[in-house]
Amino acid sequence: MRVIRDPGKLNRLLKGVRRSARSIGFVPTMGALHPGHLSLIKQAGRDNDTVVVSIFVNPTQFGSQEDLNKYPRPLKNDLALCRKARVDLVFLPDSKIMYPEGFATFVNVEKLGDILCGTSRPGHFRGVATVVAKLLNIVAPDVLYLGQKDAQQSVIIARMIKDLNFPVKIRVLPTVRQKDGLALSSRNVYLNEDQKLDALVLSKALCLAKSLIDHGQTDASRIINRIKELIGKKKQARIDYVAIVDLEKLRQIKKINQDCMICLAVKIGKTRLIDNCLITYD
């Protein structure tokens, strides 16, 4: 495994990989790797000849009141996990390399970035789209691997890739959960033991919603109200949003008679958690 910090050096190295007709799978991360990230890395290894992982805590996707300085950075452990997972190349840039003095170009996916998480995190998805566009230009992978837990992010990146004609395929893999149902997240480390128990209400709310749908409920507002009632029973939980949306434009739907997604954002104490589940019809 090689660790490379310079974008130009990585790009030149990967040009050689492409010339030899070897495929490249790419997993972008902000570090603090957990089994969810590792599931993406392992799938990239199964699908491709070369696996590239980036570790970069991207400052442009954090708001002024968010946790950039506190965001976990266990680099030594992250590199050990990458090595064990047989990653070929780790891209490890810093902010000065990614955003040099005078940097003035950003990518903004209109509308999709202004709803759901974008409402309470203005500018967040502009930062995400910008850094992913830069990483795709540097790595030029054949396949990009993303996780379903960050569903809105995946939809926005897919839209950007389509609109800007990036020659890359996307694979979105299922959310990885603990045995108790809690979706794995780097921010789970902020939760104390009581908060971890309260955080289980997110996955329980999604299970409730799926059960209601399985038993014939199609009124989205009634399902949302039941979710809010359940989450409201937890003293440390504060709802940011609960929404049921279509899969392409993330528009809220009134009647559940098509493929859709149930999305949640909830603060447990000071920690903001997101989760979602897909509802599909054959």
Q: What features would you describe in this structure?
A:
The chain is α/β, with parallel strands linked by helices. It has two domains: 2-173, HUPs (Rossmann fold, 3-Layer(aba) Sandwich); 186-279, Pantoate-beta-alanine ligase, C-terminal domain (Pantoate--beta-alanine Ligase, Chain: A,domain 2, 2-Layer Sandwich), CATH 3.30.1300.10. 38% of the residues lie in helices and 20% in strands. The protein contains nine helices and nine strands. It has a six-stranded parallel sheet with strand order 1-4-3-2-5-6, sandwiched between helices. It has a three-stranded antiparallel sheet with strand order 7-8-9, with helices on one face. Strand 8 (260-268) and strand 9 (271-279) form a beta hairpin. Helix 6 (124-139) crosses helix 7 (151-163). The longest helix is centred in the last third of the chain and has 22 residues, at 193-214. The termini are far apart. 35% of the residues are buried.
Sum up the structure in keywords:
282 residues; Pantoate--beta-alanine Ligase, Chain: A,domain 2; 6-stranded parallel sheet; 3-stranded antiparallel sheet
Summarize the structure.
Helix content is 38%, strand content 20%.
Layout of SSEs?
Blueprint: E1 2-4, H1 7-19, E2 24-29, H2 35-47, E3 50-55, H3 75-84, E4 89-91, H4 95-98, H5 117-120, H6 124-139, E5 143-147, H7 151-163, E6 169-173, H8 193-214, H9 220-231, E7 237-246, E8 260-268, E9 271-279
Parallel strand pairs: 1-4, 2-3, 2-5, 3-4, 5-6
Antiparallel strand pairs: 7-8, 8-9
Helix pairs in contact: 6-7, 8-9
